[in-house]
Amino acid sequence: MNIAVMQPYVFPYLGYYQLVGAVDTFVFFDDVNYINKGWINRNRILQNNEPFRFTIPLVKASQNRLINEIEIAEYDKWRKDFLKLLELNYKKAPNFSFFYKWLEDFFYSKEYRLIGEITSDSVEQIAKLMNLPTRFLRSSDLSYKTEEKQNGQDKILSICDILKADQYINPKNGVEIYEEEPFTAKNIRLRFINMDDIKYHQFERDNFQSALSIIDVLMFVDVSTARELLNKYTLTTKIGYNAIS
């Protein structure tokens, strides 16, 4: 079984969904500490053809609290304002009619209270839209070891044990974090995913803005094209990644 474990982000960039599509089981790491100024409750879209960072407001967000404990502030107001922002900036995008309606349905499907819920749902529902067969779990629902002395890699290995994983895939930025030997000792292959240099047509074709939210991708390309983009990546070992970097 191939697995990946990541904190839940709100409508993350295309590379996150490539990781989702590359594994059999995807675990949202939702019972770890919230990261201030991270990507859990924020991402980027286009505004006036330049990257603009949007943020879901939170109640007493702190790195001393777990992701799945933190509440959203004034969700109804934020939802209304965010949808208006998307309409203003993407109404001339080729896939706007379809995807804006999809987003409206998503945001009004629940009165979201917790950031851990809306972030994980944003990933799951986009995966469903793109017909990915990946199974989703939450680390808070798994009985893995959580002693204070455990580091992030130890926790990942505990989750791998529970799920009987034989391959663990991580984004390329984990190359400096994870050591191959502890995985090999448990007969688990450690692999890293690296997104290809992907471009699609935005409003200004000579000024492509990369690494924006999946919202931007699906405003400009249809679902089948976005699904094809998910396969444009390289999967390699730590040694192999260092060799091609």
TrEMBL record:
One Pfam family matching this protein: WbqC
Annotated protein name in UniProt: WbqC family protein
